[in-house]
Amino acid sequence: MTTVTNHATAAPAAGPDGPAADRVRVIPVRHGERPVGAYLVDRDTARFEPAVDVTRIAVTALTAAAATTVAVAGLARLRRPPAIGTVTMGPGGWISLKRTQPPPLRSDRSHRPWWARLLRAYPLVERR
Question: Whole-structure pTM over 0.90, yes or no?
């Protein structure tokens, strides 16, 4: 519940009729023990000035940054490993692939894509 306190302060301002003619009354507004803002009331207008809670803003920003960091670190740990391991060149031009299975052997050449026929490329097959 928001309450308006009865403590009003007056700040004298210089006006055409002297310092007492244009008084600004400050009426603080609280929500429980927490200040919410203040009404600034002068002879012609009344306006509300909200109070800015810098501590709450800083704590919220730091909490959001920490949560984002934890989420990114967690997703980085759950990243899928690569499909194959290290690719090295062996003696005589042999290629060595670690942590992988050999490709399936194909003997049917009728299902070659058009680009393989154009380039005269053939699939890698084991010859016995």
Answer: no
